[in-house]
Amino acid sequence: MMADTGDLHGSCLCGGIRYRAALPVFHASHCYCTMCQKQHGAGAGSYANVASAGFVIAQGQDLITEHHSSDDGRRGFCSVCGSNIYWRSTESPDRIAVTLGTLEPEYAGPVERELYTDTKPAWLPSLKPAR
């Protein structure tokens, strides 16, 4: 867990959405599920898991579109530029996972988890083992 206090800050590609998320980060992860791969157009979706109570859309709430990608999964993105902002589960409403690529400045904490490694593309490298 990232023990710092304060906030993470992020925005979408077009700048229409700006958000903040209160620290701490409970964990950061790379998710290799096929839904994350398709949503991000990449080998993984990378997220910082934070408390949903500390997540605030500071600008552009009306630009957020949510896609119900599964029975409990909701993926929030910018309706203008398509930037992926967050993933949340209706089964865990106390947490939200913000996308690492939207953070300003870039995320400086560790990425401790790899999820759904059974669908991880063979062309991606693995995380270094923890010491």
From TrEMBL:
<comment type="similarity">
    <text>Belongs to the Gfa family.</text>
</comment>
<keyword id="KW-0862">Zinc</keyword>
<keyword id="KW-0456">Lyase</keyword>
<protein>
    <submittedName>
        <fullName>GFA family protein</fullName>
    </submittedName>
</protein>
<dbReference type="InterPro" id="IPR006913">
    <property type="entry name" value="CENP-V/GFA"/>
</dbReference>
<dbReference type="InterPro" id="IPR011057">
    <property type="entry name" value="Mss4-like_sf"/>
</dbReference>
<keyword id="KW-0479">Metal-binding</keyword>
<dbReference type="Pfam" id="PF04828">
    <property type="entry name" value="GFA"/>
</dbReference>
<feature type="domain" description="CENP-V/GFA">
    <location>
        <begin position="8"/>
        <end position="117"/>
    </location>
</feature>
